[in-house]
Amino acid sequence: MIEMDCTCVQKHHSIPTEVIEVSEHAIEKTADILKDYHRIFLVADENTYAVAGRRVEQLLREAGNLSHSLILPAPALPNADSIGKVLMEAGRDRPVFDINAWSQNPDYILAVGSGSLNDTCRMVSYRLGIPYGVVGTAPSMDGYASVVAPLLHGRHKIVYNCTIARHIIIDLNVNAQAPYPLLLSGVGDMIGKYVAILDWEISRERNGEYYCENIADMVLKATAQCAQAAQKLESRSLDAIRATSEGLILSGECIAFCGSSRPASGTEHMIGQTWEVMDVEEGKIPNLHGIEVGEGTFTAIELFRRLYRETDDETLRGLIGKYLPAFDRLEELQKTLKLPFTVTDKDRFVQGILRGRTFRDRYTVLQYLYDIGKLEEYANDVYQTVMDQHFYGTFRERFPDWKA
Ligand SMILES: [Zn+2]
Ligand SMILES: [Zn+2]
């Protein structure tokens, strides 16, 4: 259990996660960390099995705690097919088949992978009532310590309430070798937090929404640390990988502390996730979450900059003004990072903003602009600014061979 006393109305925040291990050679500690479980079901895909799963399997087997493993074809997607396979393979028949008995379930599910495998196992864990944990193979999104699972369901993406990982094990050497698009995705998911916290502050001011200053501070500090480390991402320095991994985990923890994704998801996510959903609706595999959120972040920044210039609401100007230096730093970072974009078509770009407003029931600057009758105008007008100032090429141009 991770817990902290707080000055906000909740007074106390806690999550049932027991261990977060982020270190070099962390996977060597897996068997020791999971020593209280004796029938561990390991789930990986072909890629993650090669980089970490095989070693983890060997360690658990040597410790006598492995039940069995399932290796899904790569890349595994967080969809009904993967969940079905994990569910079908989770149990083991008893030595003598007995029509009156249930198959024997594992006592722990261990995901080896990043977003897709973590979300798949989280769902099965929650449905079966079996604890789970994750050996993370890429700092690609903030879902390691999250409590929800966004899953593909036909041509829909549905966010299910689930459980939280009991153990999160991040081996920095493994994560430093992750494919570069996944590293960029992690940074993209993280830089959006400035926007998310600003939206949260605006809603506190305007709607009296619950706000926790300590959680917001923790997220902002982790975001600053992550943005700074991202300058060295391409060199895959362990410091950069550590800052990104820790930032993403902390962001997930804050979601769990808060009981909603409010501290980690605002305008940038609602726009980025709308673009993801548009792909899903068209039967396509969505782009990496953090890549979409990164583009959504620069879009949100331009919406805020323009609003700052034009509004005569002094409170609002004051709130946005606090974040402008951080937005400038992200613009500088983008010159080095060149986070690729996926949406360059103007109609699709504008749709992401307009539909994004109602992506979930959450007050953001998109609702504010809608209420003053300016959302459509802003959405159309910021397109050119975003492309002129923040666009350094498309994802496809940069990574033509990327599969999912
Ligand atoms: Zn609090
Ligand atoms: Zn995210």
Structure description:
With 404 residues, the protein is α/β, with parallel strands linked by helices. It contains 16 helices and 10 strands. The chain has helices at 30-33, 46-63, 80-90, 115-128, 172-176, 180-191, 193-207, 213-229, 238-258, 267-281, 289-310, 314-337, 346-356, 365-371, 375-390, 395-398, and strands at residues 2-5, 12-15, 19-23, 40-45, 66-72, 108-113, 132-136, 148-153, 156-161, 167-171. The strands form 3 sheets. It has a 6-stranded parallel β-sheet with strand order 3-10-7-6-4-5, sandwiched between helices. Helix 3 crosses helix 4, helix 11 crosses helix 15 (375-390) and helix 13 packs across helix 15. The longest helix has 24 residues, at 314-337. The mean pLDDT is 95. The structure holds zinc ion (2 copies). One zinc ion binds next to helix 11.
With helices defined by DSSP (H or I, 4 residues minimum), what is the helix count?
16
Helix content: 40-55%
Shape: globular
Count of β-strands: 10
pLDDT < 50 runs, ≥5 residues? none
Bound molecules: zinc ion
Please state the CA-atom Rg, rounded to the nearest Å.
21 Å
CA(first)-CA(last) distance: 34 Å
Q: How is the main sheet built?
A: 6 strands, parallel
Structural class: alpha/beta
Strand % is 5-15%
Q: Tell me the series of helices and strands, N- to C-terminal.
A: EEEHEHEHEHEEEEHHHHHHHHHHHH
What is the typical, i.e. mean, pLDDT? 95
Major sheet: order of its strands?
3-10-7-6-4-5
Could you list some keywords that capture this structure?
two-stranded antiparallel ribbon, 404 residues, alpha/beta, binds zinc ion, 6-stranded parallel sheet, 16 helices, 13% strand
